[in-house]
Amino acid sequence: MYEETTIAAIATAPGEGGIGIVRISGTDAADVGSRIFQMKRCPSFHEAETQRLYYGHVVKNGAYVDEGLGVYMRGPHSYTGEDVVELQIHGSMEALRETLTLALEAGAVLAERGEFTKRAFLNGRIDLTQAEAVMDVITARGSVALTQAESHLAGALSRYVRGVRDTLKDLITKLEVTIDYPEEDIEDLTREETEAGLRAIREPMAALLARSERGRIIREGLRTAIVGRPNAGKSSLLNALLQEERAIVTDVPGTTRDTIEESVRIGGVPLVLMDTAGLRRTADQVEKIGIERAKRSMERADLVLAVLDGSRPLTEEDRRLLSSLRGRQAIVILNKYDLPQEVAVKDVTALAGEVPVISLSARYGSGVDELEEVLAEMTEAQDADAGRELFLTNLRHVELVKKALAAVDRALSSCRLGMPADCIAVDLTESWHALGEITGDTMDDDLIASIFKNFCVGK
Question: What is the pTM of this model?
């Protein structure tokens, strides 16, 4: 137990709902819960059967505040690893606030952001990767992100990290024996054996890091830039995909001056759609800024939706845009298919290469289904791999694996150069410590506190 205080907070999201939960955790959880919740068939939570729901009422000065269910979970068999009482009442914010106030008056203190999960971590019930996965589950933006978050919560990343650390520790130990006891009759590791051991550590770590970009897409979504000339129909396409009037659509060129971002889920991965200013030469200073932002959005996008006005011949701006798509993940959209067409698919592929070309009318919605099918196919790989492979979806984990891998690479270089064993051991120890920061085995208190401050109150 890392603290003697008993904490309380509303554990459900703000707003009206069928059920709301007030969570109380700590050494005095049963006392605090019993003072404010009267049960029909049990005198207090001290006598309650653990993990069992009891019907009762939240009481203030002898009057009922609300009715509901109470459950007592004795530590260590609870979310935090401590004694926990949860009161499940109606999802009225007034009733929940009143119940929380009564808990605080009965001896509890208000929980800080993420303090319940922090206690679970400090009490050894979960490690840091599992704690971070709790928030990933809560904030998952698609089924693929949820699958990976649940995998991390179940300990998949923890097991991988601890396995690599064990292998590192074994190699470090063998090297240190060679260093500390040179006079003993102990067979030294050969350079070939050391190098083989280092490669066995490096290869799976490098493969995991190589998948980190896909991990970012799983967590954040596929950054999708909608680009094209003014009045090509970019904003109309955004509205059609969102099925709402999000962007202003007019016949006046240059209406969209800034980048608009919205998310839509197609398949299991969300797409972060970025509607950008039309690409053209202009003397308007504000529009120029919007066009520069459009170009930057296109550069950092995972997918480009290049929208052309199919009812007009290709312009020089169109040709430059299509040529820039070569080698990129992109879809070309010939919009305004309801009008006589002036652009052929062969004209597009001659400039852009073999990219999907979809003809549609964003204004009337025809052809949008075909575009959604192509987009869904592009997310199928992430969908299928999410349940089979381990991905790094957290930037903190990515940076620490990079640090650990760099240290292993230095050790491998030292080994090939015939450097002393202690030089190799120093780098391997650094790698071991970096990986320990992922699970929380080698972290300082300040960094742990900063991580949990990003959590929501009540979790």
Answer: 0.74
